[in-house]
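Q: Could you fold this chain for me?
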Amino acid sequence: MIDITYAQWQGWLQLFFWPTLRILAFTMASPLWSMPSLPRQVRVLFGVGIAVAIAPALPAMPTIPIVSLEGLGLMVQQILIGVAMGLVLRIMIAVVLTAGEFISMQMGLGFATFYQPDSGTNTMVLSRILEMFTLLMFLAMNGHLIALEILAWSFEMLPIGTTSIDASFAETLARWGGTIFTSGMLMAVPIMTALLMINLSLGILNRASPQLSIFSVGFPMTLTAGLVLMTALIPSLGNFWGDLFSQQLQFMQGIIEQMSGANGS
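A: Sure. Below is the predicted structure, expressed as structure tokens.
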């Protein structure tokens, strides 16, 4: 009969518990794995599966009791690391949502909204469509595999229980949020410029012929032109999406290095 001591049980539990905590925090914060259509049980099994797969290659786990004050602090640290990494991917999706809102307002589709369960707010239809395209392109370009690779690499840069986090990463992450507006505007500028020219032309036409009802003509014209421009633009968005994914994944790697203090050393 094989006797298993309490110390052995605790060692096995610690071997998988701490990595699973960081992985689950990452999946909860990232847009791809936190979709409401994905059951919670699947997310938990996904996190546990990744932890089991990478556990043999991880550095030695700390011998800190899980149910203790020190263990509570370590839990918060792992959750903070995972959430910070997931927020980087969340910024990537926010860029596309912002671009969709800019285009929708210019097209006159600002009223076309519906409730989005994962964000708990009303989202414009065009933004939702662009979000789905972005997620599909992210999967097609193997961005999810690169993100998981960076997640596994984070255990080398930030070993569990042996390093402290450089708090300056919070300011860097907040400043990086500015790309939501800048990159979103860059994505929407071609269509917004064309629609602005159409609106200016309609304004000039209204001044030249006041008896013409511009409202009845302008709305369907801008809507039709916006749809045609979106159809023409989407095939050319591959390069933009590739650059966006590359920037976000590189920043995710950089934020891990900053947490570990590697950038300052």
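A (continued): Residues 69-107 form the longest helix (39 residues).
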